[in-house]
Write a structure and sequence with these properties.
This protein is mainly α and 253 residues long. It folds into two domains: 2-86, Homeodomain-like (Arc Repressor Mutant, subunit A, Orthogonal Bundle); 103-188 and 223-252, Tetracycline Repressor, domain 2, CATH 1.10.357. Helices cover 66% and strands 0% of the residues. Helix 6 (103-120) runs parallel beside helix 9 (159-187), helix 8 packs across helix 9 and helix 9 packs antiparallel against helix 12. The N and C termini lie far apart (46 Å).
Length: 253
């Protein structure tokens, strides 16, 4: 049983000083470094998706052999973990120590940043639960989230629950939105044309048509002339509900 656990346990590129390694010693290929390899990996993942990503494809993009890449990472998993952390870098995070800023606005900023990241980089979603996410950029994001949630006035035992409520909602919303944009791109249509085509198609099925008919009133009440506006309005309202829930729990004491 122990041996099986050892085989299946996933390590981390950020452990055992692996992340600080710049190569395995003498003889590593010139013109490469871990930062460049990670940057190109992110670009490839954005352009071609997770399913098509491989060390061989990355090497071709870098114009080197696949073995050259292995001077800097031991496995493809290590490279994906580096890419996952890289997308957290450079985010304009709010300052949780800024006393003149409202935690509600800061929380909205963080949630919007996370949603944008999930939509812009659809491969982040399936990788988020695969790795420990203890890279430097991920840790800065996590620490900022924790400190802002602590500013809400929730008791200590409610902090993790509030984080889960907000950011698991954003994870789900951003993941589905990313899937939608992927389908739109594959169809070669605009989001608005795709949405109209989909609505016209589902009404051909009696059961689906009945559901759509029942939802017309509140879909119209939501407002929004474009898919982007509709998605933004739903996201904003749902996030406001969660923030109101946090406020209510603080009042409950």
């Amino acid at each position: 049983m122990v041996k099986a656990a050892e085989r299946t346990a996933r390590g981390s590129v950020w452990l055992e000083d692996k992340a600080r390694r710049r190569g395995r010693g003498g003889g590593q290929p010139s013109g490469l470094d871990r930062e460049r390899i990670t940057e190109v990996s992110v670009r490839l993942l954005d352009a071609e998706g997770l399913a098509k990503f491989s060390m061989r494809r990355l090497a071709a993009e870098l114009n080197v052999t696949a073995m050259s890449v292995y001077w800097y990472v031991d496995t493809k998993d290590e490279l994906l973990e580096l890419a996952l952390d890289a997308v957290y870098g450079g985010l304009p995070l709010p300052d949780p120590e800024a006393e003149d800023e409202d935690w509600r606005d800061q929380l909205r900023t963080l949630a919007t940043l996370y949603r944008t990241q999930l939509v812009r980089h659809p491969w982040v979603s399936p990788l988020a639960g695969r790795y420990l996410n203890i890279g430097p950029n991920s840790l800065v994001f996590s620490r900022t989230v924790q400190r802002i949630i602590r500013r809400t006035g929730l008791p200590a035992h409610g902090i993790t629950g509030a984080i889960s409520a907000v950011f698991q909602f954003v994870y789900g919303y951003g993941t589905i939105e990313g899937h939608f944009h992927a389908r739109v791109e594959d169809a070669g249509m605009t989001p608005d044309d795709y949405f109209k085509h989909a609505m016209d198609s589902v009404t051909e099925t009696p059961a689906a048509a009945a559901v759509i008919e029942e939802s017309k009133e509140f879909m119209a009440a939501r407002g929004g002339d474009t898919v982007e506006e509709m998605l933004n309005r739903d996201f904003t309202f749902a996030l406001d509900l969660l923030i109101a829930g946090i406020e209510a729990m603080v009042q409950r004491g």
